[in-house]
Amino acid sequence: MKITVLGCGALGQLWLSALEQAGHDVQGWMRVPQPYCPVNVIQLNGLAYNRNLPTNDTAHLAASEILLVTLKAWQVYNALVPLLSQLDPECRIILMHNGMGSQGELPAFEQPVFQCVTTHAARRDGSTILHVAAGTTHIGPTNIAARPHSEIADTLHHALPDVAWHDDIMPAIWKKLAVNCVINPLSVIYLCRNGDLQRYMPHVEQITREVARVMEAEGYSTSADTLLRYVVDIIHLTADNYSSMYQDVAAQRHTEIDYITGYLLRRARKHGITLPENTRLFDTIKRKEQNYERLSSGMSGSWK
Ligand SMILES: NC(=O)C1=CN([C@@H]2O[C@H](COP(=O)(O)OP(=O)(O)OC[C@H]3O[C@@H](n4cnc5c(N)ncnc54)[C@H](OP(=O)(O)O)[C@@H]3O)[C@@H](O)[C@H]2O)C=CC1
Ligand SMILES: CC(C)(CO)C(=O)C(=O)O
Q1: How many helices (H) and strands (E) does the chain have?
Q2: What was the ipTM of the complex prediction?
Q3: In DSSP terms, which residues pair with 118 in a beta bridge?
Q4: Architecture in CATH of 2-168
Q5: Which of 106, 159, 169, 211 makes an SS bond possible with 18, Cβ 3.0 to 4.6 Å?
Q6: 180: CA distance to ligand 2 center in Å?
Q7: How far apart are CA 13 and CA 106, in angstroms?
């Protein structure tokens, strides 16, 4: 199958290597075009995958049957919009990122769209991507055109198992949003690994209860206690991780807070619900982000 992977970072390279080894005709699509895309992945079995794969070939893009989007949520609009008119109307677009709301920003288009959440973990170490944990990728349709295409889960599963198809992917995406609303900002506030959040259970519980209120208003049947058990399970399972938001703030990169807590707050407003603790966390992370972004753009700002 001809496939383009948009965004050749940690997850992008993991999928490029897996799809190429599964026999697909793959290319990467990079922000700054280069003669080739160097894909260097240390796989879970310890073996290195090192290949220079083709990149930014418009003929390959136009013939692609799958466009796998492995960008940060805030990068999706700028990267994807210029490519939409170049895609085949049947090309299946898969969004794979933390947070919610990126699809709502896009103009109308006819291609089938899918959204994923994954528990695979990969991170950059110098010029190499380390596949640090195996996981499950949950995928499902987010528009009508995508509904008949459950076979896409088999294609992905064959390359990088496990992949599970969901006719209704939204509950899985909301559960992941809940996890990210709790773990990501709290790990920045307490400057800690995910596992250390067990020391701050009242705070974990307070945030989770607010998220559960919004999920209930959105029509998802989950109790605050069930959601809390799920969040605590993920805290245990990822105890040694520094969350992606912790890493973004430490490296003074733009965070995904607008698509995580920011999305939650936008949905809460629609239902007339106020979320004092999530609002406070959102403001704190935005202040940190704006401070270093202001400094790096040469404007004055104060550290808080
Ligand atoms: N890594 C992981 O283990 C997991 C990640 N996720 C989520 O998956 C998403 C991707 O994460 P991850 O791979 O770690 O992120 P990375 O930052 O490693 O990868 C994003 C890549 O997209 C590139 N990019 C940015 N803008 C464009 C553009 N306009 N056109 C083409 N490429 C562009 C970046 O390049 P450049 O740096 O040059 O801008 C970068 O290489 C995030 O939402 C993350 O939260 C979810 C679960 C696990
Ligand atoms: C699940 C979790 C919290 C794992 O670290 C994650 O998705 C992230 O760091 O963004």
Answers
A1: 10, 11
A2: 0.99
A3: 137
A4: 3-Layer(aba) Sandwich (3.40)
A5: 159
A6: 6
A7: 25
Distance from C-alpha of 264 to C-alpha of 245, rounded to nearest angstrom: 16
Contact predicate 127/139, CB 8 Å: no
Q: Which residue has the tokens 């992917």?
A: 169
Cα angle for residues 61, 66, 72 (degrees, 5° grid): 90
257-273, pLDDT tens digit by residue? 999 999 999 999 999 99
If pLDDT is split at 50, 70 and 90, which confidence band does 298 have?
Answer: low
Return the best residue to mutate from 74, 118, 136, 194 for the ligand 2 pocket (most ligand atoms within 8 A of CB): 194
Q: How far is the CA of 108 from the centre of ligand 2 (A)?
A: 30
State the fold for domain 171-296: N-(1-d-carboxylethyl)-l-norvaline Dehydrogenase; domain 2 (1.10.1040)
Q: What are the extents of the domains in the chain? A: 2-168, 171-296
